[in-house]
Amino acid sequence: MVVVEQYFLGTLFAFVLLLCGLQYNIRKKKAKELKAFQIHTQSYQSSHSPDTSAGIDVIIVGAGVAGAALAHTLGKEGRRVQVIERDLTEPDRIVGELLQPGGYLKLIELGLEDCVEEIDAQRVVGYALIKDGKNTRLPYPLEKFHSDVAGRSFHNGRFIQRLREKAATLPNVQLEQGTVTSLLEENGTIKGVHYKTKDGQERRAYAPLTIVCDGCFSNLRRSLCNPKVDVPSCFVGLILENCELPFANHGHVILADPSPILFYPISSTEVRCLVDVPGQKIPSIGNGEMADYLKTRVAPQVPPKLRAAFISAIDKGNIRSMPNRSMPADPRPTPGALLMGDAFNMRHPLTGGGMTVALSDIVVLRDLLRPLHDLNDAASLSKYLESFYTLRKPVASTINTLAGTLYKVFSPSDQAGKEMRQACFDYLSLGGIFSSGPVALLSGLNPRPMSIVLHFLAVAIYGVGCQLVPFPSFKRIWIGARLISGAPGIIFPIIRAEGVRQMFFPATVPAVYRAPPVN
Prior knowledge:
Helix content: 40-55%
Distance between the termini: 75 Å
Structural class: alpha/beta
């Protein structure tokens, strides 16, 4: 009897344990299903939410040369990047087609040199300067560099698409087509952007750092800088087909009246022509005034070898124009945001230095961000990144100052100005350091602002000497005096806008010594 009772109690105990085990397994399964449902629901809500901010380190507004190159660079550094670009189709522009050797070196440094391959890009080894039928060659001083280093010229849109494709190969870089309408600000800190998707949906994206690279027509720059945009002239663009330049693989600058004409190859069969027209009001393209202006005023000054192709391009009717903008960098440091590219700083495109400045800025920013693992302390990050504005100055201010100075010299408005232009042509024609020095500055190979001042003063003094030799007359002395007195008025306003202290005495700027914030 005792044995039976023990057997019954043991069976009952085992049955209770079995029920408890079954109940536990059922609850565990339900909890697992509920958790899976919650995760699925959260994922669904996230994918359908107007906020697209999960896990993003950097938002980049714009995917032009600066934005696309920056996206790839930060992506390679391990940052999670979201790029929002208004139009991801291939751009069709008439500038941004010449990359200087200094810019090509930066492209190599960023690992993007293959982006000039497979787009029929042309090597550029120097400039040809032409005035009144005389010419002088100005080769880039590339003797100390690898044989592959040179300038490159190409269709701007093809280059940008290659940069975008390269950025899109990284799994942590997202490219999205959309129009950013505003920056999201909270207590003085930029938290992200508000934008419209391609199909018109309103979205918000959040990230610790927003970098605005939305180009020369930026609608966001006003909250991040003090823009002082100047439009000294407009470029009128044509494409000449199946013609040969007087000097192969050279950019050509025609010192015409009233301002320069540029020719350079953009493919194996095409030559870009840019005619500078001073002022903001130009002859109408639509009613034929521009075609008449080009044929009657410009064509006679085009080299004979190119004249027939130039007139043929006019007759084809594909004449385009764009304003030439310059804007010195005048940032307003804002926690959580940074400006780059043409949205931040522009110079006259005469010297083709814009892409070189943008790529150089990307290298500077990459090196500043490299030690930082966490970008969430917006105030400390903003203070630290103030050094960016000084560290970029050697390259940026050299190219900016030279572009503004050369445009003023090459577009004279009086007799003294014409003599300065002639003096510049003659000075560069001397060869040696008189040509290689300025060309090294122009090409981004020698980022030393003081060298610009020295060469410019040398040109002015040389011009005065030419007026006084062999026999000075009262008229020539007067022109020489106006030339030397007018020279400071050409270069000093540009230097003042760039910032004298940052250009020539960067070591005295406290920001350059700031250590990275401790994460």
